[in-house]
Write a structure and sequence with these properties.
alpha+beta, three-stranded antiparallel sheet, 1 helix
Length: 164
Amino acid sequence: MEIRKGTSIIELVVVIGLISLLALAMSAIMLTTIVSSNRVRRLTQIKQSGEIALNQIQTLIRNSRHVESCDADLDVLITVNPDGDTTDIMVEDDGTATRIASNSGIYMTPNTLEVSRFSITCEPDETNPVLFKISFDMAHTISSGNARENPNLHFETTVGTRNE
């Protein structure tokens, strides 16, 4: 009886099939990891930018001498700074995105993020406001095809002036 050394063609096909299945499973895991990583990166950028914008608005309101105008219909807030100049806080479209801006020409949000549903509420009323509720939503201007990769976060705060 003659003993053959080596592998049969069936054994090779089975091994190649198993390696293909493993490669397919690994590519699915890698793709899921990349998508998840992109979502987390976008979510972190939106959260940081939104919190920075809220902190800038809170600082402007708290440190102002007084609020000159609070127009909840137009969503514009005009404060008088400690130096006597005024600062307008509003939403402005710069051609690439809708951003939170001030009249000093400084945008409080980056042009890679889109601000929507911006609102300013003045309490107890617009003529003699004491508290200001600011809220807005923020998302990326460039969206990928997958809705899960494009988070939209809501930001909200209530702040009052210190110096009145």
